[in-house]
Design goal:
Number of strands of chain B: 3
Largest sheet of chain B: 2 strands, antiparallel
Structural class of chain A: alpha+beta
Distance between the termini of chain B: 31 Å
Oligomer: heterodimer
Distance between the termini of chain A: 47 Å
Strand content of chain B: 5-15%
Largest sheet of chain A: 5 strands, mixed
Number of helices of chain B: 6
Radius of gyration of chain B: 15 Å
Radius of gyration of chain A: 26 Å
Structural class of chain B: mainly alpha
Amino acid sequence: MTTSPTRAVSRFVAVAVIAPAAITAVAMGLQLAAAPSLPDPVAIHWGAAGTADGWGPAWLTLLMTVAVGLGVPWLMAATAVVGLRRGDRGPVYRLLAALAVATSAFLGTLSTGSVLIQRGIAAAEDAPSILPVLVLAGFIAVGAGLGGWFVQPDERPTRAARTATMDPPLGATERAVWVRSVRLAKGGFLVLGAALLLLVVVSALAIAASDDAAVIATLIVVVLVLIALIAMTAVFRVRVDAAGLAVTSAIGFPRVRIPVDEIDRVEVVEVSPMGEYGGWGLRWAPGGGFGVVLRSGPGIRVHRTGGKVFTVTVDDAETGAALLSAECERTERER
Amino acid sequence: MLIRTDPTSDVPLFAQIAASVRADAVARRLRPGDRLPSAREVAAALDVNLHTVLHAYQLLRDEGLVSMHRGRGAVVTEAADRLAELQDDIAGVVARARARGLSRQALAALIHHASDPEESP
């Protein structure tokens, strides 16, 4: 199978940018065409039982269709397109585009359906149940998501894992240590910072709207915990010595220690945080194992004896991996 | 950065540690502004006395390669970049010496002699 280098990008744009725009345009067209036969105001909210319980002008539904049905998918696309253009690949990008088009299809169907079922009725109080529309929107969203997933090529980052060796080799009586610190990349800070800002804004709005002390306390705790988590995972120190690999946060926790006798083999890999791990920080990727992923570029990947995999992105990974391999070989020889 | 020591070598351990740090600067594994790991961490990893590592760090400070800051430890100075400019020359002379069958010890002695003929062994 031959895929041109930009096919993943063009298909991603088609699924996550163009398709939501087309879906939203169709939804807007249908809603505008139905406008003359709608009651005023229209029902804009339905209760859990499926009966209408909130009213508003028809343009509100239209606004929501554009703001959420197009805004959210485009926001999702915006977080990924930079990495993709740089040549980054991975199933996470594919999933993101599929989710973007599914979101758009769901909201487009739901909002348009909610308008169309109100055609010809005298007052919004007579609006029929929203439940059939909800079910239809669910099916269309799943279909759009699956379609979006399968039209994109399954491109994986070219994983040129290589082993590293020391030059000159580690002597039998030699003792060595390799230490390096790594900090969160600017891109990671931006994404985490934006997520934090969004949470703070949403929390502030929720707190302003709520007078429930428990809700306010919970939101404040969530924001503080998130800030603490970002601070804890922004800088790590990586150390390789005769004991093995140690990866420790600048503030001492969290830490990962892998003794040499639990290491099967060591590789130097090129890591793409978005494509492989879906983001930055302490990460777990299906098939990729656990990772301390703070930036794109070289990293040390350790295959443990139990089959588990651990990856840490770090500058000069070549030297660290070489020493770790040498220490493992020495342990094996002594056994 | 990578520090290599050999307890069986005739060279004192503190000098080996200092030489490793210099080699890191030459190879650009250490850049100005980088922080050396704490002496305690290095001592534990290499299984040497804490004062041996401190001795090495003090030697490097006297050379101007690192500066000591209270609370921040040893920080690499701009001198690391000047040291790194020697990388090509050093790699070149090592390769040419190896091609001519010169041993590492002989090459080291020659460089020692060239830089300080009076104290040459």
